[in-house]
């Protein structure tokens, strides 16, 4: 399978038939070193207009993914390697649910599907997370709603406050 580099974070699988194996996963993980936002993906869908979007994504621990939601869309994650917490919020920023996912675990699921437009983010617990994400297209950047309680990563002070508040909520969640 041939990969076309679209940016330092996005590669496209060329052709009508996509096949991924361990060599491709290793390549994806190695590309993380040059990924300024701490994540890189291989798109298996040929364009943003496709009705089905499939991506293999590698994400480093500590990578900030701003809480967001996708009205009118579903998404599913299948964890290939590593572990992650999918943090789901209500519209005011209170925890609704925390879904712990882990590859090859007897305790935690390795798959999740979100069928409603809830705000959500990912907290990578392993050094590297590799997952397969599926969502419906087409993709429109302007259709993503960023959570007003979750700051853009450029706002360093607000980001520190948000992470602190989130950690407090997670501690309370885990204690209950």
Mean pLDDT: 94
Distinct helical segment count: 2
What strand order characterises the main sheet? 1-2-3-4-11-6-9
Radius of gyration: 16 Å
Structural class: alpha+beta
- Model regions low in confidence, pLDDT < 50 over at least 5 residues: none
Question: What does the model show?
Answer:
With 176 residues, the protein is an alpha+beta fold. The protein contains two helices and twelve strands; from the N terminus they run E-E-H-E-E-E-E-E-E-E-E-E-E-H. A seven-stranded mixed β-sheet has the order 1-2-3-4-11-6-9, with helices on one face. The protein has a three-stranded antiparallel β-sheet with strand order 8-7-10, with helices on one face. A two-stranded antiparallel sheet has the order 5-12. The longest helix is centred in the C-terminal third of the chain and has 20 residues.
Topology diagram in text:
Blueprint: E1 3-5, E2 10-13, H1 22-30, E3 39-43, E4 52-60, E5 68-69, E6 75-81, E7 83-89, E8 95-102, E9 111-114, E10 119-124, E11 128-136, E12 145-146, H2 156-175
Parallel strand pairs: 2-3
Antiparallel strand pairs: 1-2, 3-4, 4-11, 5-12, 6-9, 6-11, 7-8, 7-10
Please tag this protein with its features.
176 residues, alpha+beta, seven-stranded mixed beta sheet, three-stranded antiparallel beta sheet, 2 helices, 12 strands
